[in-house]
Structure formats: structure tokens, C-alpha cells
Amino acid sequence: MTELVFELPDGARVPVAVKYLLNGGYAGRSQEDVAAHVAELAELGVPAPSTTPCLYPVAPYLAQQTTTVPVQHGKTSGEAEWALVVTDDDVLLTVACDHTDRELEVHGVAWSKQAAPDVLGTRAWRLSSVEDRSDELTLTAWADDEVIQRGTLAELLPPSYWIEELRARGLLVPGTVLLSGTIPMLPGVNQFARSWRVELASPEDSLSLAYSTSPLPEPVG
């Protein structure tokens, strides 16, 4: 079982054995904007979901705190997200990046989520310490040092929505990790890059992660 360790602002270190890993999708707070995004993706060959928002179960071992993501080709990219981490006695909020195989995505979004890890930060906040102002928190992503995403958590369904979804599905248990879904890409950016960095920030503090992609050897056969 994959074990992650998160450092809290008070210096405490919290180990979490990942039992369930879940990816939110099409999780914008404005479902009108989500519908427009679904239509845009359909033009690129990405199949439309049967309902929104979506929740994709992912293999728990794909939750990683890593600085290197192996990839099979150049058409993969990350997505700036926040993540909920359920511990034995609390819920944490951290920064995350859902690395996705875009070539596989046209065959099935759920399949594409299994092709690369969900990268999580090594620092976290207690959700209770920031929840009342979570809409003010900002998410920023850089690909090869170019800003490609920038927004606030107000653009996404709030942590409270996903807490209730997890509770209703019997998944609000220690070891559950849920990624939020992502904010829009800025117009005209190149999302295919060798290095990725994501920051989740409040006026007082910030959580960040960074990793590079590493091409796998060419297959034989």
C-alpha cells in the first residue's frame, strides 16, 4: 500500500496509507462553463461524460510524491488541482497535479487517468484552517516555466461538496485521497512540456510541487 507523508504548518508529519484515490472531473462550479468545455473536447475526439461532475477511481499506487514522471510519448500533460487527504482524525488540503495521457484520453478519460501518477505535494494544511476562505486560495501551474493555468478555488466545486459526496458513497475514510478537477488553461499556451510546477497559495503561505517528465525507452515488439 502506498504511504504518503505530509508536513503541516506546525511541523507535525502525518503519514497516510492510500486506500482510495479518486479524481474529480468536469468539476467547475459553473456547470454552463463545464458544458461548453465538454463540447470543445468533443471536437478533439474526447468522449463526453454521461453526467457531470465526474468521479474517476484511480489505482491507489498512482498517488505519488515524486519529482519524476515516466512517460511513453510527448502528448502528456499535467493539471493544476487541490487534493483532499483523509487521515485517521482529520482532513488535509494539499496541492496536486493530475498527469494525463492526452492520446489515450480520446479513447476514454478514465483510462487516461491510469496512465500516469497523481503527483501530490509534501506539505499540507488542515482543511478546517482554510475552509472558510477556500474560495480565495489561488492555483497556478507552470509548464517549462510558462504560466499555463491561474485561477482561484472559487472556479471549482468546493471541498465541502466533495466531502459530502465521499460521505454519501462510504468513502470518507482514512486513506482516501481525492483530486479536485482542474481550472481552465490560459488561451494559446503549450501544455506539452518537460517540467511542471503547481502552487496552491493563500496570502500567508503556499504549497507547491514540481516534477519533470522522463521518456521511457522505445518498446521492443
Automatic annotation (TrEMBL):
<dbReference type="GO" id="GO:0003824">
    <property type="term" value="F:catalytic activity"/>
</dbReference>
<dbReference type="InterPro" id="IPR021269">
    <property type="entry name" value="DUF2848"/>
</dbReference>
<dbReference type="InterPro" id="IPR036663">
    <property type="entry name" value="Fumarylacetoacetase_C_sf"/>
</dbReference>
<dbReference type="Pfam" id="PF11010">
    <property type="entry name" value="DUF2848"/>
</dbReference>
<protein>
    <recommendedName>
        <fullName>DUF2848 domain-containing protein</fullName>
    </recommendedName>
</protein>
